[in-house]
Amino acid sequence: MGPYAVDPADDYPDYAKKVAQKVAQNPARNVGLLLCRSGQGMCIAANKVKGVRAVSAWNEKLAYSTRNDDFANVLCLAGDYLKSAEAQKILFKFLSTE
User: Fold this and answer.
1) Structural domain of 62
2) CATH code of the domain containing 65
3) Which pLDDT band holds residue 4 (cuts at 50, 70, 90)?
4) For 61, left (φ over 0), alpha (ψ -120 to 50), or beta?
5) What domain count does the chain have?
6) Is residue 45 domain-resident?
7) How many CB atoms lie within 10 A of CB 64?
8) SS (HEC) of 54-95
9) Does residue 43 carry a catalytic annotation?
10) Which of 36, 42, 54, 75 is catalytic?
11) Is residue 34 classed as helix, strand or coil in its secondary structure?
């Protein structure tokens, strides 16, 4: 849902809101992924949308737990703290957990 190019004037809550609103259209079936430096700002912004359960996970165990136990539907990842391979594993665990 963006951004598609670097724009110093953009703001992460705008993108968190777009993703969260899309997920909220069918929160039991839709899932979203948000990335920012810490992942925390995205979580805060996304959780303001009714029907969204945004979580931050830094390992596969948490990704599984938040999805399985807490019915999370938006995963927020920290770009500054996760290597690409780690982030991919977390995302795949989140997506593969019902």
Assistant:
1) 13-96
2) 3.40.1400.10
3) confident
4) alpha
5) 1
6) yes
7) 16
8) EEECCCHHHHHHHHHCCCCCEEEEECCCCCHHHHHHHHHHHH
9) no
10) 36
11) strand
pTM strictly above 0.90: yes
Report the C-alpha gap between 58 and 19 in whole angstroms: 20
Q: In Å, what is the CA distance from 56 to each residue of 6, 65, 81?
A: 24, 11, 12
Maximal C-alpha separation, the chain: 38
pLDDT tens-digit profile of 8-18? 888 889 999 99
Instruction: Give domain status of residue 6, yes or no.
Output: no
1 located within any domain: no
Assigned domain for 91 exists: yes
Return the CA Rg of the chain.
Answer: 13
The Cα 50–Cα 30 span in angstroms is: 14
Encoded tokens for 41 = 């700002």
